[in-house]
Amino acid sequence: MPKTNVSMEDSVRVRNEVVFLAQARKALGAVDGHAALCPRAYAWDDTNLETQFIVEEFKNGEHILAEEFSVLSPADQTHIFTQIAKFVKALQTIKLPEGVVYGGLTFDGEGVISSTKCPIPCGGPFKTERSKHLNGWKGTPKLRERLEVFFANGRDKVLQTIGEDRPTLTHADLGMGNLLFDRETKTLTAVIDFDFSHAGSPVSEYLFSFYDVDYLLTSSVEPNGPMRGFLLDGFPEGDEHKGIDSENVGELQKARRFDTAFASQGVPRPSTIGYAAAASDIWWF
C-alpha cells in the first residue's frame, strides 16, 4: 500500500506503477526471457487515496548493498553491472504506446494507455512551509548569478539546448537497495520499488539512479570532482587515475566498470547523449 503524504502525486501512483510493470515485463520478455525480473501486479485499487493498493508478486533474492559491493571482485562487479545494463537497455528500447509523452502513465476502462501527471511532483503551486533547510541565498554559492544568467538568456533559449528525444521507461531509483540477487552467483533475480517510475528521456535514468556506484549525472555547479566530466567525456584509459585522490581510486574503477558494461550492451550513456550536460544543469538548477 503506497504511503500518502510523501511528496508524491498520490492520485496517479497506483495506475502509473501498474502500467509501468506491465510495460517493463513486456520489454524484458524480449531479452532472453528476463520478464521475471519485474514483479507481476495481481490486483490494484485507487478509488480511495487513503486505502489504495497494489498486490504484487513476491520476489526472491537478497540485497548486495554498497559496502559489500565495494569489496567484490572486478569480475563480479562487471557481471552485476552488465545485468543492470541489459535491464536498462530493455526499458529504453521498447516502443511505448502511441500518444505517450513524458510524465506518468495511466489507462482507462478499456485498458488504453495514455500519459498523466508524473508521480514525482514537478512545480507548484505549493503551500507555504517553514523549513530549517531554507536559508535564502546563503547556502548556495553563486545562486543569484545563475538566476540572473537564466533570466537574461530566456527560458525558451535555454531549453532549446536540449534536443527532443522519444519517451522511454525510466525506473528512476535504480540503486543497489532496489535490486535482488542470488548471493552465490551474483545473478540479478528482481528489480523492485517502482514508486518513481515514469516516461522520461534516455538521460533521465542518470539523473535519478546509480547514486551508489558514482554514476549519478550531477550539474556543473556540483560536479562531484572530476566524475561529471568522466561521465560526459569518457573515462581515463587503463589504470590512469587523473584528478582522483588515492582514497577515491576504488570509486573511479567501479564507475569505469559500470560505464564499460553499459557500453558493451549498447545502452545510451551521458557521453553518447548530446544534450546530457545541458539537461543535467537544468535538472539540478
TrEMBL record:
Pfam family, one: APH
Transmembrane portions of the chain: none
Domain Aminoglycoside phosphotransferase intervals: 22-205
Domain of life (superkingdom): Eukaryota
InterPro entries (alphabetical): AGP_Transferase (IPR051678), Aminoglycoside_PTrfase (IPR002575), Kinase-like_dom_sf (IPR011009)
Protein name (Swiss-Prot/TrEMBL): Aminoglycoside phosphotransferase domain-containing protein
Organism whose genome encodes this protein: [Torrubiella] hemipterigena
